Amino acid sequence: PTNINQLSDQLLRLRAQKQSFTLVKLPLSDAILFFTEKQLSWQNVQNSFEDGFVIAPFLFGISSNNTLFFSAKNKIEIDFSAFASNFETVNQTSDFYSANLDTGKVQYKALVANAVKHIKLGKALKVVTSRIKQINKPSTFNPLESYLALCGKFPKTMVAWVYAPDQNLEWMGASPESLLSINNSVATSMSLAGTRSVQSSLSWGEKELTEQAIVTDYLKSIYCLLYTSDAADE
């Protein structure tokens, strides 16, 4: 596909055939990676080093079949600039949704109170609470336009759209965080923590630096465990 209409038509055909696909744009990249899979299932890929796109839940430890995998064998690259003329129009639509139902104030306050209790008991240094928010999907909603809008609005993030009907899954999001990057046999990760207003000109405070240190120290501890394990195996 070289333009938005061709890409839209192809995605509609895949949806009609109940065939899985994902669109991925890496940070500052000029290409959208387009993966397809005829049949997608949860599998164990922990010992596989094949190129591709992986979807996995956050689980403590490793289970046998906890990963959805799109192989790079079924990947094509789409020139990102082919859609540039569409971004200005798409980005003018800043709100695709309207609020309908969320977790609720009472339930969320109870969750926060439980998190505070957990920390005071010394069971954790940091707990992140979140709310579930359900939204109405308007009849005019177009997932491809929404995806392209994310690509245009957040060029420095990884933007992904996953459609996996076999698993009753459709997910779209943009994230600046790099879980793992390898260059010249050197692996790096990112401890992204702490928040402040993007307009803020103030330095990071003690609270934010502490939050960052918790994540950084955790990554260091995992590295030490992996290094010790590898040395023991040798």
Binned strand content: 15-25%
Spatial order of strands in the largest sheet: 5-2-1-8-9
Query: How many individual β-strands?
Result: 11
Which structural class is indicated by helix and strand composition?
A: alpha+beta
Q: How far apart are the first and last residues' alpha carbons, in Å?
A: 49 Å
Order of helices and strands: HEEEEEHEHEHEEEEH
Q: What value does the average pLDDT take?
A: 78
Which residues sit in consecutive blocks of at least 5 with pLDDT less than 50?
Answer: 85-100
Number of helices: 5
Question: What would you say this structure looks like, in words?
Answer:
By secondary structure, the chain is of the alpha+beta class. The chain has 5 helices and 11 strands. It has helices at residues 4-16, 84-91, 105-120, 143-153, 206-233, and strands spanning 20-25, 31-37, 52-55, 68-71, 75-79, 98-102, 133-136, 158-164, 169-175, 181-183, 186-188. The strands form 4 sheets. The protein has a 5-stranded antiparallel β-sheet, covered by helices on one side. The chain has a two-stranded antiparallel sheet with strand order 3-4. A two-stranded antiparallel ribbon has the order 6-7. Strand 1 and strand 2 (31-37) form a beta hairpin. Helix 2 packs across helix 4 (143-153). The radius of gyration is 21 Å and the shape is globular. It starts with a helix and ends with a helix.
